[in-house]
Structures are given as structure tokens and as C-alpha cells.
């Protein structure tokens, strides 16, 4: 259970690379939209802003450093939130493409998927009768035959290169085995506490969104690392978002929301912004007597190097 006086970190994943424009008219696509929604989410209480980039012409995911630079520095100038840059990109990007901007920016934090896996939302394609852009249908349906690759060698490379620049990681764990993958790198001395473990539930190819799975992930992480050595956090995909992240806080963890993870704010109601989701989970947490961590408190909890040591 949670301890009295503990601060809860709210992360916000602003746009991602999984949802396509047709799925929500509110999904930020252009650099200006990503910038504005990220700043608003930070103002609403998100201590960490998790960022992907999209081609401003049609909203498709892009690893282009030129596109990242159109919004990341502006977010950093407008808010003190921790900037967290993806190293996952999308299933269609090479490792070199996924690392192109993070290696230039050397941010305080990057996300890091802890293993190769099937990762798909292809069943959703059957629910769409008309697509906003012609690339979207093939992109979503094609996930059925795509694998997200992060081999042990890939992960080691990311830890050595970005970690060598002082970047720390949001370790995204989609399955129980990913915790053991993390433990492998801890044993090798490539990862040192405090770890930030982001348990992911509800993605086809990963763990189901069952409360029992969260308990299993939490207790397994305790055994592998010792609770004093890591911060636990949860994201729930789609309709599972708010119930699961609330449970995470009750179990002593932190929370992640954002339009990358769910385009809804309530059943059948689309979220009009990332900040709307941040405000909702903040209200829930505060009504449960939790305190929300500031960016400075999140930096201290996660052992981050500080904004002054990045090249955004």
C-alpha cells in the first residue's frame, strides 16, 4: 500500500505513434499542436511529458530531429516539466532512426521498451469505415504482421549511448518477462537505482488489463529490485486507463495518462486534450488524499541530471 505523505508523479504521453488521426480529431499532430497540448498538460499537473513526433503534413509518426526541434525546445522554455523523449518511435522505424533525436538532445529521460514483442491494435481497423489520410488503413491493419524490435543488443546499445550521456529511463514493461530483462541489465551494472518502471497493460501482444496482473508486476519488481530501489508507474490502454492508474497509486505507484494511451476521457466520450486527462486523474488522486509531485520532486525521486545538462 501507499505510504503517508508520498508524492505521486503524473506522466503525460502526448501523442504517441499508435493512434492514427482518424481515431480522434483531438490527437495532436503538428508541432504547434503537440507543443500547446504538452504545455497545457504540464500546467495541469503533469511532472513528466513523454513525447513522440509526427509529420505535420499527414500525422504519420516520424523520427525526424528537425520535427522534434520544432516543439521540444518551446515546451522546455514554457514549462519546468521533465522532457521524456521516446526511443520506441514506431514498429516501422529502425533503431538508428529511433535514436536520432535522443542522441542529439541528451534529455533527462527517455522511454525504453524492455523487449521485442508483438504490438498491435489491428482489430480496431474493422471499426473504421472512412479514413482521414490514405496511409492510416495500411498502417493499422499492417500491425498484425509487425514486431516491435528491442533485442538485448539493442537495449544494451541504448543504455550505453544514452545512459553514457546521463539520460535515465522510463523502462516500459509490457509483460512479466520484461522485468527480468531489466534485472539482467541491473546485474550487468548497466542500470542503477532508482529505476522508473512503467508497467503497461491492455496492449494486444502484452499483458491484459487485469488488476491481478498489476499485483503480480508490483510484487515481482519488489522481489527483483527491492521497493526502495525503484518507482513503480502504470499506464492502462484505452478504457482501462483511469481505473488502472488509480489502482497504481493505491498500490504505492505513479500514473501515466495521455492521448498516446487512450483517446477517451469517459466511456464513449473523446478527450478534447491531454490536459483534460491530467486534470481528471489529478482530481481523483487528490480526492483520495494523494499529493501530486512537482517536476522538481519528480527529478529528485528519479535521480535525474537536471534541465541544465540537456541539449534540447
TrEMBL record:
Keywords, ordered alphabetically: Metal-binding, Transferase, Zinc
Cofactor: Zn(2+)
Any matching Pfam family: BKACE
GO molecular function: 3-keto-5-aminohexanoate cleavage activity; metal ion binding
Protein name as annotated: PF05853 family protein
Amino acid at each position: 500500500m501507499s505510504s503517508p505523505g508520498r508524492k505521486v508523479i503524473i506522466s503525460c504521453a502526448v501523442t504517441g505513434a499508435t493512434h492514427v488521426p482518424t481515431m480522434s480529431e483531438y490527437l495532436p499532430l503538428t508541432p504547434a499542436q503537440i507543443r500547446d497540448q504538452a504545455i497545457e498538460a504540464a500546467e495541469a499537473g503533469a511532472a513528466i511529458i513523454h513525447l513522440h513526433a509526427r509529420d505535420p503534413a499527414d500525422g504519420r509518426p516520424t523520427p525526424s530531429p528537425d520535427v522534434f526541434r520544432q516543439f521540444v525546445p518551446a515546451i522546455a522554455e514554457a514549462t519546468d516539466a521533465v522532457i521524456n523523449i521516446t526511443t520506441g518511435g514506431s514498429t516501422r522505424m529502425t533503431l538508428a532512426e529511433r535514436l536520432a533525436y535522443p542522441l542529439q538532445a541528451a534529455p533527462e529521460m527517455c522511454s525504453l521498451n524492455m523487449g521485442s514483442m508483438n504490438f498491435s491494435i489491428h482489430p480496431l481497423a474493422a471499426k473504421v469505415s472512412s479514413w482521414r489520410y490514405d496511409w492510416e488503413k495500411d498502417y493499422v491493419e499492417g500491425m498484425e504482421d509487425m514486431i516491435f524490435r528491442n533485442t538485448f543488443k539493442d537495449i544494451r546499445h541504448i543504455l550505453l549511448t544514452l545512459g553514457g550521456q546521463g539520460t535515465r529511463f522510463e523502462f516500459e514493461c509490457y509483460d512479466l518477462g520484461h522485468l527480468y530483462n531489466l534485472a539482467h541489465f541491473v546485474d550487468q551494472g548497466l542500470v542503477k537505482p532508482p529505476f522508473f518502471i512503467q508497467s503497461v497493460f491492455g496492449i494486444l501482444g502484452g499483458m491484459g488489463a487485469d488488476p491481478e496482473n498489476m499485483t503480480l508486476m508490483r510484487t515481482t519488481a519488489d522481489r527483483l529490485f527491492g521497493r526502495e530501489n525503484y518507482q513503480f508507474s502504470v499506464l492502462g490502454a484505452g478504457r482501462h486507463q483511469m481505473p488502472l492508474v488509480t489502482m497504481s497509486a493505491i498500490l504505492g505507484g505513479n500514473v501515466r495518462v495521455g492521448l498516446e494511451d487512450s483517446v477517451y476521457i469517459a466511456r464513449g466520450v473523446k478527450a478534447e486534450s491531454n490536459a483534460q486527462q491530467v486534470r481528471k486523474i489529478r482530481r481523483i488522486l487528490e480526492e483520495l488524499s494523494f499529493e501530486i509531485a512537482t517536476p522538481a520532486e519528480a527529478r529528485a525521486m528519479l535521480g535525474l541530471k537536471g534541465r541544465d545538462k540537456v541539449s534540447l
